[in-house]
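Weekly modeling sync, notes
Attendees: S.R. (lead), two postdocs, one rotation student

Agenda item 3: backlog of single-chain predictions. S.R. asked that every request posted to the team notebook include the full sequence so nobody has to chase files. The rotation student volunteered to paste the first one in as an example of the format we agreed on. Action items at the bottom.

Example entry:
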Amino acid sequence: MIEFQQATRRFGTKVAVHPLTLTIPRGEFFAFLGPNGAGKTTTLKMAAGLLRPSEGRVLLGGIDIGADPIGAKRLLAYVPDQPYLYDKLSGREFLRFVAGLYGLDIGPTRAEMERLIGLFDMSDWIDELTETYSHGMKQRVALASTLLHKPQVILLDEPLVGLDPQTGRQVKGILRALASGGTTIFMSTHVLSVAEQTADRIGILNHGKLVALGTIDALRAKAGAPENLEDIFFRIVEAAEAEEGKK
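Predicted structure, as returned to the notebook:
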């Protein structure tokens, strides 16, 4: 469903993402881990069509997002790490606005909006202006808005930042259910426990290079069989740094 074909991204002389070849199939929950500046957000933005690869290409559902951005973007939803809402709209008005962007029929969409408002427990404040919302409230509205058009691909950059534990647990359950239903989810996170609890496969980036890829069990074997993802992560990153230092 998501294919990176030797996708590279440069900013001037800096290579933010080295040639990346990666396929994320339909219905997989895939998580990207890496230190700050590793290239996770840049990779997500290439998949979302917000950045063009300097070389290579990214396909969504077989559609080259660089050649046919509108066709590819109909399949996806993207939630950045900082949700941007319109301050002078209420949460409900923002959901209607997003529905209009996708040209959705207001009849069925109204019922879906009410379902999502209930699902994300937003009924008590959804009609207040978003300028009054906390980060976690904005995040819930942004996540709900991504589901209105029933996307085939969801791209998430730190989706649980600012959510209280109860809402975070709820969102993880919603995302897992979506993946089980066939939605492809590509998530970047610093929270290792979130990746461990949700992801089918994990990729680890370091200095823009994919240094490890696989299930938790596969990564555990690669790292020498530590028990938790935190130890796996640090062993793999430290090994990558050591290898880079030899060059």
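Discussion: group reviewed the output briefly. Residues 86-150 form one domain.
Action items: rotation student to repeat for the remaining queue; S.R. to check formatting next week.
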